[in-house]
Amino acid sequence: MSGSRPLALAVAVAGAVAVTACNRILGPTKTDTDWRIVESAHFSLHVRPGSFAEQSAPTLGQVLDDQYDVTLRKLNAQFGGRVNGFLYNNAADAGRESESSGTAYPDTAAFKATATPPLDGNLFALVSHEANHVITINALGRAGTYMMNEGLASALISERFHPFGPHFYFQWTRTHRPQLVPVSRLSDDAEWPNLPQSMAYSASASFLAYLLETSGPDRLRQLYYARSGEFTARFAQIYGRTLADEESAWLAFCETQG
Amino acid sequence: MIAPGTSVLCTVVLLAQAGWSASGGRETFAYRDIARNGPPADASPVEWRGSGPSMVLVYERATTRRAHRFTIDVAKAGSFAYSGPVRGIAAPGDDSATRLEGRYDYRRYVLRDRIVRGLAAGIGVQGGGRRLSLQRHPGMATEAMSSTAGSVAGVASARLHRWARWSAQIDWTNGLAFLREHDRHSTDVLSDVRLWGGGWLTDLTVSGTVHLSRRAAVSASFLSTGEGTALSHHSYAFARRRFALGVTYVR
């Protein structure tokens, strides 16, 4: 080989190597810097300049600060960290498929959510759910199952500013009985991804809110770490009754709500 | 995965002998948790970022055609902050990250003086092991994570030694890792969990060496690395940047 051909080949190979690097393909991308920060007592809310989220940030901060206190009180847990919230303009801005979606990153005390009008209970519940992931995992560690992780984040939602908290889920359970699957299936991580997600999230939230309301946080905190394979046995050990019996009691309880 | 400490090694390679090199420098460690694996990964907009000292010890046996390299790399990072895209918030002072790695790589230089006089391009394979320990303090609690990983990677390398007094080298390492992780949270012993997972790694090292004599050289190197890990209930990526200075003794 001689002349410019080998050089071109070398450049092409070097380029291919750089482009195909694992980290370039699989790794995270850099976050843009087009944000303003609105502070509340416990949250630093990052909003796009001039956006609906910027106008709404003081109210969302109030809702989230209340949620922060309610979550720690309901779990009888402690967490003193500050949470960074990133409120995107819409799904395209957030790189999401849904206009109402969010993601939590507990290790770095942050969450992302789309913040689209109107400023109502749906948006409050969305940001509260994501914030609850951050607060719960930092206060307790990682949950043992998807059911506990996702269900508890909704079960803990404060009802001070909107109705989409535990009582909403109790009523939802009463009106969606035919769609429910046994709790033993909800607690199975192998099954969780295949279940209808709306049902799985709501039923998990309802069951865990019921456990918190009727048996308190101490037992739930023990169950929190149980992994799928041991969930049913751990439940019986902690609550002194079978999961199936408690499930029947939960359904009966929901019939009396609302 | 490891910073190969290539800064000083090219000297050894080019002299077709065996030698030791030691490098020291400062390294930044930036961690982001991942909610959904990619591509691209859905990662936190905030980094848990710290920095601290890093040391690399390398033994290499080399000829003009091939090289065997053994590397031990240790680093400890502190002074962490939660760094967002606009500003950062200091993390508790006792947050820390400690890393110990060992690697072996074998490479062959298949293109020598073909493109540019003094330029040799090589390819190779690398195997390694790594122990990583992270400790965070959210609120009053302590959250600890430690992982033990094994990796297999490919290496592409180019070295330029056209002049007697100095040489330069670039190394690119890219591969897969398998790991076992242990997570625990001080709030409850029940939080203790062990997980299996896999991941990827990509390293890029650029180095330059000045040869002081037949047996001694000094060097400077820059390492940029990105690694990712996917486990059930816990995925994350981290990046390291290191600038190091080193010395080499050739037998």
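The domain at 6-250 of chain B is CATH 2.40.128.90 (Lipocalin).
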